[in-house]
Write a structure and sequence with these properties.
mainly alpha; Vanadium-containing Chloroperoxidase, domain 1; 230 residues
Length: 230
Amino acid sequence: MNEINELDHQLTLAINGSNSLFWDNVMYTITNTFSWSLVILVLLIIIFKNNTWKEAVMVYVTIALLIFVADRICSGMVKPMVARWRPTQDPQLMYLVDVVRDYRGGRFGFFSGHACNTMCVATFLAWLFRSPKVTVTLIFWSLTTTFTRLYLGVHYLGDVTVGFIIGAILGCLFYWIMERFVHPRVGIKRLISEQFTSSGYMKSDMDTFMGIIFFNYICVLIFAMTLGIG
């Protein structure tokens, strides 16, 4: 176990930080949930547009419950129970970690809430939309958002790995519950058309959603450049 922990420490330090103010700004911005407000807004609109209002509300409620449960399992149960220091808080490691803008996070970091929350949402939406391109984009979003936690030194690689696994399980579970028990019509329309995914979402809306995600990345890069490049 000590050997695994030591490897986890070494890999985390290898990923953590850089000498670039530009990348510091990029990672610090991406890790902030507020920076994804436009993507969230477009997502809500697309779900509403492609469902009846009752179905849309059911999807909204399920996503909200999914995030709430994931957060409670992570922050409310596992983190205080396991009590594993974040790298930025670990007395043995904190002075070796490259800290950005004095951001150190809370005391404990196992497992990563960012990894769990982003992956559970990405998994749930992948099942909901049934679009391979959107699925790849959502996984990319989850991976890049979680990478910022390693870069900023607020999580070990093991923290985010476990977070990914639990997030994927929760995303699948909540979609299955919604489809089987809560509202059988949501997500199983199985339309046969070039204009729709198999779950009934317009492919043009899927393209719009992907475009907004990558537009958001571009905005983050531009914002980082305006703050200076190291």
